[in-house]
Amino acid sequence: MTDWKSSLRSDPMPWLLETACAPIRYRVLTELMELGRDDPEVQKVRLEVQDYAPALQLQRVQRKDGSWGGHVSAGDPRKYQASIENSLYRLYEYGWDRESKPVKAAAKTLRTFLTKKKDLKFFEFSKLVKADEKRNRYYRWFLRILSIELLVRGGYLDSKNQHLVMEMLDRTSAFVDSPVSRNPVEEIGAAIPLIRPQAWQDGYTFMPDIYLLRMFAFSPWLLNSQAARMRLKKIFDYVVSPTYQDLAPELGLVRTDKGSFARSHGLAVLPAEHYLKKGHLDELMILLEIFSRLGLINRYPILMSQFEWLVSQQGKDGHWNFSTKLINDSSRWTQLLRVEKDWRSPNRKEADMTFRMLLIMKNQWERQVTMLGRRDDGYPI
After folding, report:
1. How many helices (H) and strands (E) are present in the chain, helices listed first?
2. Cis bond leading into 249, ω under 30°?
3. Starting at the edge strand that comes first in sequence, how are the strands of the sheet with 185-186 ordered?
4. Does the structure show a pLDDT above 80 at 10?
5. Between 101-112 and 133-153, two packed helices, what is the crossing angle to 10 degrees?
6. What kind and span of H or E run contains 343?
7. Of 46, 93, 86, which Cα lies nearest the Cα of 62?
8. What is the pLDDT of residues 13-54, one digit of tens each?
9. Contact call for residues 217 and 153 (beta carbons, < 8 A)
């Protein structure tokens, strides 16, 4: 019987368990091999994870308010800056979870954005929202969505958070089903077109962006519902559609009484040739991981061709060793992909890239059956 490893030239997991850093070894055991927390080897490696130097460094620079650098969001995706979003994602990649002190402290702050308090601390957005009611409503929604995504990613899966995920799925699906989604912006002569008034709901536009899509991707329990699977297919079909791709990544301009700003955070799906010529393979791997976690890669030919090309790059020894020219070393996405401490060692870079490819392959193989069915897809493109 075939499984997700059947297409590998050689199984690199023994090599990863022997040579990779503690977080990768821990995630190989728990995510790829699916061993439980009670397994003696898992417990042993987990202790090493808790002493992993990059994670301890993040813990040391966390502020008392649970933030890093006094920021919540990641800001410019092309650059890495200290923030709750970036730091929590790195801790999650290192195998830290809701049981660790820095995650608990950050989660306490994130939960404040799930409330309806009038005196919310907006961190880096405080000046922007102070005298602008529209921005105030917009950033309340934005920080609420970001908080739900980070809490779910960290294992906070109580019924309240699941209800919030379902609410966001319903709102995003409603936008995609609305006629305005086919023409969501107005051409007004600016470099970035203006988002139409009809695209707004309760002070926010639920046009799918990377925060909403990652929220869904890290909620695999959604696949247990046929209705949720249908909504997810519609949403991701819209993301891959020409209408959306013509706007991504900026998505449109938000006009307020105090000026305008770009909606931003759209997910651009580009041909493989783009990454071969321009680099930024880190962006492609982040994109494929989002789609793979819902088993959606093989629904879209452009993604399937990218996926097959990446799989074909596996060496005879089972490792993936992509050229440094294909990876933007200063990118925020590279920082999130980099679990190993030092990429000056070829083995360390190979360990990161190999683990990431195995994770994408496993998620896609196992979840496509649930999402798309073994035979005919009930909701074809």
Report:
1. 17, 4
2. yes
3. 185-186, 194-195, 253-256, 259-262
4. yes
5. 150
6. none
7. 86
8. 999 999 999 999 999 999 999 999 999 999 999 999 999 999
9. no
